[in-house]
Specification:
single chain; mainly alpha; 97% helix
């Protein structure tokens, strides 16, 4: 039994030695390649991380600039809105003044027309009243005398 155990141990040692001698180079090369592959992957990951951080900083900077640009645009729009408001108010005031002027002119013209009509009506009424008074109070003798006076005045003018 001891011999069996010793034989198994020696057999195992031979197997390990054979594996070591034959598998050392391929296994070493495999592990070396694997180490290089892992190293390359780590370097690429670090490079990608740095690029990602750089992109993040660039986008963060762009966002800050964008916030500033948005504020500038907002301020510009507010100023333009105020200017437009002032322009519209000024135009409305000018238009109101123009309308007031036109209304005043129209009122003056209508007043003149009304004054002329009133004068014409007053003159017509005065003539009618005078005619009525003359008809009532004028006697045939007075009528003849007036006609004679008129004819004489016309002769003097000729």
């Amino acid at each position: 039994m001891w011999w069996d155990l010793v034989f198994k141990i020696v057999n195992f040692a031979v197997l390990v030695t054979a594996l070591y001698l034959f598998a050392k180079k391929p296994l070493g090369a495999f592990l070396k390649r694997r180490q290089e592959s892992i190293k390359t992957a780590i370097e690429e990951a670090e490079k990608a991380k740095e690029e990602g951080e750089q992109k993040y900083r660039e986008y963060e900077e762009k966002l800050q600039k964008l916030d500033h640009e948005i504020e500038q645009i907002r301020q510009t729009l507010i100023k333009e809105g105020e200017r437009e408001k002032e322009r519209i108010i000024k135009e409305a005031q000018q238009m109101a003044e123009k309308i007031k002027g036109q209304a005043k002119l129209t009122a003056q013209q209508e007043l003149k027309v009304a004054t002329v009509r009133v004068k014409e009506e007053a003159a017509a009424m005065t003539v009618q009243l005078a005619e009525d008074l003359v008809k009532k109070h004028l006697k045939p003798k007075d009528h003849e005398r007036l006609v004679d006076d008129y004819i004489e005045q016309v002769r003097k003018l000729q």
